[in-house]
């Protein structure tokens, strides 16, 4: 079964090395995946490629196939990891990163390619792409968040619903999401929720992930 056919976006963790603190990204991710996280996106805007490659290898070992593993922005790191035999499922790209068309061509048909989208212009651009180029959209921010200080204006749940209604692609809500937002977002059409501080800064990432996963299921 390919990563694409097995993709479960319900609970999606975006890593933050600062919020993970002394525990480290690998330990936080291992605990969160044990608690129910289904997608892990390695995001570190400041690390060198060599450091990211080491980290992605450690994450792949810790996850051991229990969750989808993506690299934020760095298509070069994802490709290098795959060339080294490390299980990396794909990338998540922002609007200013390597084009998704290039990512799809380089990674192949079975890889996961996600894209940030939060405006009508973004959706129009996605609609012009060849079918199968992008697997899902990351849509946000839902609420203002300190983990991404340069974020666009907050959409709120209603704004998210409007974006999700304009595309056939699964949409993952991200940005300032708390556990109380899960039911409204699922009702608004979210295929899942992406969180950063709610898990990276949690005293017990496993327990926090279990609570999010349980709330998501209750929101069916």
From TrEMBL:
Needed cofactors, names only, are:
Mg(2+)
Q: Specify whether Transcription regulation is a keyword of the entry.
A: no
Q: Which residues bind 4-amino-2-methyl-5-(diphosphooxymethyl)pyrimidine?
A: 41-45, 72, 116, 148
Which pathway, per its entry? Cofactor biosynthesis; thiamine diphosphate biosynthesis; thiamine phosphate from 4-amino-2-methyl-5-diphosphomethylpyrimidine and 4-methyl-5-(2-phosphoethyl)-thiazole: step 1/1
One annotated GO molecular function is:
thiamine-phosphate diphosphorylase activity
Q: Which InterPro entries match?
A: Aldolase_TIM, ThiamineP_synth_sf, ThiamineP_synth_TenI, TMP_synthase
Q: Does the keyword Repressor apply?
A: no
What is the protein's known function? Answer: Condenses 4-methyl-5-(beta-hydroxyethyl)thiazole monophosphate (THZ-P) and 2-methyl-4-amino-5-hydroxymethyl pyrimidine pyrophosphate (HMP-PP) to form thiamine monophosphate (TMP).
Q: What is its EC number?
A: 2.5.1.3
Q: Which residues bind 2-[(2R,5Z)-2-carboxy-4-methylthiazol-5(2H)-ylidene]ethyl phosphate?
A: 145-147, 176, 196-197
Protein name, UniProt field: Thiamine-phosphate synthase
Residue positions annotated to bind Mg(2+) are 73, 97
**Keyword set, alphabetical order:** Magnesium, Metal-binding, Thiamine biosynthesis, Transferase
| Top-rank taxon, per record | Bacteria
Instruction: Using the UniProt record, name the top-level EC class of this enzyme in a single word.
Output: transferase
Q: Which family does it belong to?
A: Belongs to the thiamine-phosphate synthase family.
Instruction: Give one Pfam family, short name only.
Output: TMP-TENI
For this chain's record, the cofactor binding note is: Binds 1 Mg(2+) ion per subunit.
Q: Thiamine phosphate synthase/TenI domain: which residues?
A: 11-199
HAMAP family reported in the protein's UniProt record: TMP_synthase (MF_00097)
Q: Which reaction does it catalyse?
A: 4-methyl-5-(2-phosphooxyethyl)-thiazole + 4-amino-2-methyl-5-(diphosphooxymethyl)pyrimidine + H(+) = thiamine phosphate + diphosphate; 2-(2-carboxy-4-methylthiazol-5-yl)ethyl phosphate + 4-amino-2-methyl-5-(diphosphooxymethyl)pyrimidine + 2 H(+) = thiamine phosphate + CO2 + diphosphate; 2-[(2R,5Z)-2-carboxy-4-methylthiazol-5(2H)-ylidene]ethyl phosphate + 4-amino-2-methyl-5-(diphosphooxymethyl)pyrimidine + 2 H(+) = thiamine phosphate + CO2 + diphosphate
């Amino acid at each position: 079964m390919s990563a694409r056919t097995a993709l479960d976006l319900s609970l999606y963790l975006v890593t933050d090395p600062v919020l993970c603190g002394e525990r480290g990204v690998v330990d936080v991710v291992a605990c969160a995946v044990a608690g129910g996280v289904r997608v892990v996106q390695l995001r570190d805007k400041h690390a060198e490629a060599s450091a990211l490659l080491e980290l992605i290898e450690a994450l792949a070992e810790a996850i051991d196939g229990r969750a989808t593993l993506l690299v934020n922005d760095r298509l070069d790191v994802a490709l290098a990891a795959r060339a080294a035999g490390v299980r990396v499922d794909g990338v998540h790209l922002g609007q200013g990163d390597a084009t998704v068309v290039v990512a799809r061509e380089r990674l192949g048909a079975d890889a996961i390619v996600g894209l940030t989208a939060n405006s009508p212009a973004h959706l129009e651009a996605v609609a012009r792409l060849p079918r199968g180029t992008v697997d899902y959209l990351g849509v946000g921010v839902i609420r203002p968040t300190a983990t991404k200080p340069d974020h666009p204006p907050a959409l709120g749940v209603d704004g998210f619903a409007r974006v999700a209604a304009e595309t056939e692609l699964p949409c993952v809500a991200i940005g300032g999401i708390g556990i109380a937002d899960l039911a409204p977002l699922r009702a608004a059409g979210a295929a899942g929720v992406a969180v950063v501080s709610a898990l990276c800064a949690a005293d017990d990432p496993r327990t926090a992930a279990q609570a999010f996963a349980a709330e998501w299921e209750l929101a069916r």
